[in-house]
Amino acid sequence: MTLPKHVYKILEDIVGARNISDDLAVLDSYRYSLAHTAIHLGPYYNTFTPRGAAVLLPGSTEEVQAIVKLCNQFKIKFKASSTFWSAQGYPSEDNTIQLDMRRMDNILEIDEKNMFAVIEPGVIGATLQAEAMKVGLNAHIPGSGCSCSILATATSYFGSGPSNLYGGWNYENLLGAEWVMPTGDIFKIGSLGSDCGWFCGEGPGPSMKGIARGFLGAKGAMGVFTKCAIKLFAWPGPKTLPVEGTVPAYRSVLPENFKAYTVAFPSWKAWADAVHMIWDTGIGYLAHRQFNMFGRDLKYAMVKILTDPTKTLGDLEELLKDPEVQKVTQDSMRDFQIVLVGMTPRDIAWQEKGFDEILAQTGGWKVEAMNTPEIRNWALLYLIRLGHKNLNLVFGGSYDGCFGLLGAVDFGTTHVEEAGMFKRDWEMHGAIVQAGGDCTMGPIGGQGGGGTGLWENFTCFDPSDQESVAGTLEFFDAATRYGLEKGWGVGMEKWNSQNRGPDGKTTPKEERDRIHLAAPQPNVFRYQNKVREIFNPNNLGDAYYETLDV
Amino acid sequence: MALEDFAAEMDRCSQCSYCKWIPYDQVKSWRFSKNCPSIAYHNFNSYSARGRYAVARSLINGQSGYSDAVREIVFTCLTCGSCDVSCKVCRYNLEPLEMVRELKTRLVDDGQCLPEHQAIINSLNKESNTMGSPRSERGRWADELDLPHLPQDSAEVLFHAGCRFSYDKELQKSARTAVSTLRKAGVNIGILAEHEMCCGGRIYSMGYRDEFTRLAKANIAAWAKAGVKLVVTSCSDCYHAFKRLYPKLGSQIKVFHTVEYIDLLIQEGRLKFQHEIPLSVTFHDPCHLGRQGEPYIPWEGAEKKIKGQIVVYEPQKPRYNGAWGIYDAPRNVLKHLPGVELVEMERIREYSWCCGAGGGVREAYPEFSQWTAMERLTEARSTGAGALVTACPWCERNFLDALKTTGNTMKVYDIVDLVQEAL
Known about the structure:
The complex is a heterodimer of chains A (550) and B (423). Chain A has 550 residues and is an alpha+beta fold. In chain A, 34% of the residues lie in helices and 15% in strands. Chain A has 18 helices and 18 strands. Among the domains of chain B are: 112 residues, no CATH class; 142 residues, Glutathione S-transferase Yfyf (Class Pi), Chain A, domain 2 (Up-down Bundle), CATH 1.20.1050. In chain B, the strands form 3 sheets. In chain B, strands 2-1-3-4 form a 4-stranded parallel beta sheet, with helices on both faces. In chain B, strands 8-5-9-10 form a 4-stranded parallel beta sheet, sandwiched between helices. Chain B has a two-stranded antiparallel ribbon with strand order 6-7. Chain B is globular and about 60 Å long. Classes of the chains: A alpha+beta (550), B alpha/beta (423). Chains A and B meet through α2 and α4 of A and α1, α3, α4 and β7 of B.
């Protein structure tokens, strides 16, 4: 469906002719495949998010405001996205205007003294980190990687990632924010609202983070965030990451106050104990079970490929026959990666000593094959910049997380093996990659420096292969049933099924109501419905902001 | 391959937008972090590799049709290959550069050509060059050099000037310098003069596959007739065509870019430098010498799956991701020039920013092309260097034209000009 000509003309006057399009091919480049990643509801073969009515590239808050006011006048739904990594940023219904925020990509300020940056939506993790490092600071990069909008993770999602341990989650790191509300009015959140600057998200000034984003964020369904301040943290390293090596096996040799290790443990209990001890001692800059995303059976062979520019996926089978690879694979079954960063030589010495003591007490060990200079320096760069997250899709072109054992590490570690074995059986059906069942990965730490770990079990498949997609869906349905049966709850594989349905459009209300009424705390969604009625009276967002009116 | 052969890739594209940025590990600043001029200038998703995958899928599935927007989306791709490098930092089973070339060819085959490109094709059909100049004047640039003219004369090495050096009077001194330098080192070198034809590389990148094949076969035949075993060229576009495209048509000729040959001569002690050049320079890696200058490896095979759903190829497919392009040779040469200090830009080697001249963009979208060149000049200036050095006449021409429009005072050199000055 296209916009009425007079509406299109007004929009064109707002953003300029070169920043609006309703060409069908252009619109089709703003549709997301439901046979793809980060959907958390399918996958569904050859199904796409709805085609928008027009795509607009606003260049300023004023333009965004004018667009949103016009949308209210003509009751047109709109959806903003900055870097389009996930289906969440795409329209859920026909006749929606897609706002692509990439023109608003300025780092407006880096306040070195007060350790924050003021950014626009199009600023990605890589550029913010690069600029922050020049003044001795670093930015927390979300698990989706440094290709993603930092503002989006802070204002509209929860922004978890490997550096949770030291750098917090971006929902916590959100300070002052400028919000074009669904009505088109501009609201300045936190200290910004009382003209006190950007330094605080709560006040002095209106503390509206809870309304504007809550915990999970409104995912673009409640207006448009046009600027925000984000907390930065200390970077005691070089002003620019020194990068060497041949593409794609880039690596970084950092000073002695940087250490990267892959460690493994004799049992999941020992794994969890070590994580608790890390939190208790307060050591560590970044900790993540990252490379296990390739699968327990494949991860070391994959690391060998990724760190050798002459190798390809075609070398995988041969590598898996190598006895050294098999031994390392076996030794690193229950592993994670950790980066220790000392602010002083004494600090790093103490952290190393403390970490060695933790390994001694838990029976853990450093996986020496992963700690050779070439692999260690590759891992160090990988984890700090998080610029290889497209490896999530390296095998067949698509992945999604399942199970999602979100919670205390004792919860996750108790069930990770069983979940992995369940998946391992399904891998043998052929629809998903045979990786060893346990492809569980995720950050170690969060929510105040502790608390959570072991997140999602990666499931890789081929989005162009109908049987692979159908088989993956079948597995995800089985995983959901298994998770419920075991009392683990619904896994990540269905997280968004109450927002978007198999046709790519908003889940029917009856189904949404059923899911929300079955939730442990349905009143949360009733409360959000009240918020929606007041702040978004024309209901111009979509169901990613979850509400319940019964 | 047909566009439909890329259908699986269209589905497998991660939609991650890595194709819009230099490899993230290499990002040193906000200002110089983007890699693809097309999306950087036009901003809509459709102007990126991920967007072009989506546009291609939309077209082959009949969900959309040709329009002015589609033509612009397709033909504003410089085919510089920067998206290809960034994509392949993580992906081993996508070929975005190959896909967009196929997309251009589909548009051309379907008659969706641009008049500016058609003018080039007309010139090629009539005069065998892209410059609209008489074929009979193709060898005039070398009139004062008294070079052997093949095939009537013989020479160990053929120097292929290419269209730009043959007819661009401001630049052709660099071709003369290249030949003189090689002769000074004892290289027995000749030219085909009016028998030389366009390499076809530029029209290949515009989507004119048949015309390219005709030219390539004609050049290969001319070389065979003249008994040529080794071709040297100072044009990176020609170098890429000869090195990467011609072997698919049976060519087994050995190819050197002039800068590679000079590097070799320096290493062998056959070129010695005597004069100091007190100059700080920065080097622009031409796309077709750098990331697209990797050796050709023949491959015929098919996709297969291992471990259930891991996509690989039988036999193993060569991986062109910019890793093995020509980056060190020009830097080695510059480091040997007395007094010359090389300062690097932020975007170099496989993740270099394009000059803006490729893919038919210079001819069809001059404003965008000049903007792209200006971006590079701004980056060059930010290094503090007094000169930008490159190794391709198309890059040099685009930079010089951009300088003229802005009054930017940076000097632009072909690398052989500095070599000559130092000898």
